[in-house]
Amino acid sequence: VGNSSVLICALKLNTTMVTWKISPKTGGSCTLGYRADQNKTDRTNCSDSVNWKFRPDQDPALEIQQVGIVHEGNYTCEVVATEGNFHRTYHLTVLVPPRLTLHCDDHGNPVCEAEAGKPPAQISWDLESNSSPREEVHDDGTVTVVSTFTAHGTNVTNTICIVSHPAGNQSKSIAC
Question: Which residues cross the membrane (predicted)?
């Protein structure tokens, strides 16, 4: 999320037409087209963040600027050339790294939160705990995972929360 993404599409000799068909998971579809005989580009229902990376007659790559969850979906490039028709489909999945917070609850137990991640983060502790994480799903598709550390009858002065996520791992320590 937030980065730029480039999807490549192979340019063939004697290309007559290139079309990007974009079908997001949510919202309406969008199309970018290029006709070589008229040296003309066309766009239908595409946001300004989705466009050709370069000139489509030289490189028909697609660029998505400031990638967000709304960009998730299927992206298909169709090239029509004298050698035939060529298709390439991408399925874009957006990763959102969670925000890690760690605090002590009213009973002196460490509480670890991996806020608004996609997919949901995994929370573990450096010491053995019988905590069971709970998840809260948000309207934008992100998930907050909360885990409260509960020790097995031992007096713990310092513990570390470990958050594992495909966008990167994080850890924090706290003494409650």
Answer: none
Fold of 99-174: Immunoglobulin-like (2.60.40)
| Residue 176: Cβ within 10 Å count | 16
pLDDT tens digits along 129-143: 778 899 999 988 899
Looking only at the bridges linking them, the beta strands covering 15-24 and 62-64 are: unpaired
| CATH class, 5-92 region | mainly beta
3-state helix, strand, coil in the chain (%, to 5): 0, 50, 50
CATH 2.60.40.10 placement within the chain: 5-92, 99-174
pTM: 0.77
| Class of residue 3 by CB neighbours under 10 A (exposed 0-12, middle 13-18, buried 19+) | exposed
Strand order in the sheet with 99-104: 99-104, 110-117, 143-148, 134-137
